[in-house]
Design goal:
By secondary structure, the chain is an all-alpha fold. The chain contains four helices and no strands. α2 packs across α3 and α3 runs antiparallel to α4.
């Protein structure tokens, strides 16, 4: 085996490890934020009786990212939970964006194009409706 091939295998392994770490950190951070939001929510509303006779939809502040962030930073339990779910959704999107960077570093244009298409489809599915953002 040549030194170039060994160096590239090592780089590929390091790249795969970085992607794995990105996914682990994203999911772990998301789980922590959701759990924190659950604790805050239960501390404030855990004693309230549940009323299932009347349907109450999602409050308007949780229908936009800015509303969720504002609610989370004002330490409302539901806002913190929603922020954790946004982090969970952002994790695979960040993975795809990171993959484009990795393929660019390897000068692999074909995979850059395919991964770019996947990123565009992901972003369109998130942003295309216009209701979430």
């Amino acid at each position: 085996m040549t030194q170039t091939a060994t160096h590239r295998d090592l780089t590929d392994q390091q790249f795969e490890n970085m992607i794995g770490n990105l996914l682990r950190i994203g999911v772990s951070l998301s789980a922590f934020v959701v759990a924190l939001g659950g604790v805050v929510y239960l501390a404030r509303h855990g004693h309230s009786p549940a009323d299932y006779h009347v349907f109450r939809g999602e409050p308007s502040e949780f229908k936009s990212v800015s509303g969720i962030i504002h609610s989370a930073f004002t330490f409302h339990g539901r806002g913190i939970i929603q922020l954790g779910l946004l982090l969970l959704i952002a994790t695979p999107v960040a993975r795809v964006a990171f993959a484009i960077w990795g393929f660019a570093a390897e000068h692999d244009r074909l995979y850059m194009v395919f991964t770019g298409i996947v990123l565009v489809v992901l972003l369109y599915s998130l942003l295309g409706s216009g209701s979430a953002f």
